[in-house]
Amino acid sequence: MATNNIFVNLPVKDLEKTKEFFSKIGFEFNPQFTNEQAACMVISENIYAMLLVEEFFHSFIQSTKKEIVDATRHAEVIVALSADSRDEVNELVNRALEAGATPYNEPVDHGFMYAWSFQDLDGHLWEILYMDRATVQQ
């Protein structure tokens, strides 16, 4: 099976604050798929985060009868994004912390891989990592 894009759907309490937060980190939004209920955050050419107001998000899961997880108390997913360097990892996480994120973990250095995590305004976990592919054994 081949796929072309990934759309990570995340419920948010305050869409405007969430858009402002991610804009401060450096992300942009596709206006074609952004309105008062949802914002399409562009992560890369083929990766997007759909930030959906909780009521709108619930309409997607309504048939499952599942509740929306309170991400400030429970982990539902860790969105892991790769960076081009350790410095880029630090830069992105520091921008997130300055914009109002809370720390999730201290930086972790495995030698070949370096990662640091934060929680966004809704408690969703984001891990930014750099992997030196030249040091990874084949």
Structural write-up:
With 138 residues, the protein is an alpha/beta fold. The chain is built from three helices and eight strands, in the order βαβββαβαβββ. The chain has helices at 15-25, 54-61, 86-98, and strands at residues 6-12, 28-30, 38-44, 47-53, 78-82, 102-109, 113-119, 125-131. The chain has a four-stranded mixed sheet with strand order 1-4-3-2. Strands 5-8-7-6 form a four-stranded mixed sheet, with helices on one face. A hairpin with a 2-residue loop joins strand 3 and strand 4. Helix 1 packs antiparallel against helix 3. The mean pLDDT is 94.
Descriptive key words:
138 residues; alpha/beta; four-stranded mixed beta sheet; 3 helices; 23% helix; 37% strand; globular
Question: Layout of helices and strands, plus pairs?
Answer:
Blueprint: E1 6-12, H1 15-25, E2 28-30, E3 38-44, E4 47-53, H2 54-61, E5 78-82, H3 86-98, E6 102-109, E7 113-119, E8 125-131
Parallel strand pairs: 1-4, 5-8
Antiparallel strand pairs: 2-3, 3-4, 6-7, 7-8
Helix pairs in contact: 1-3
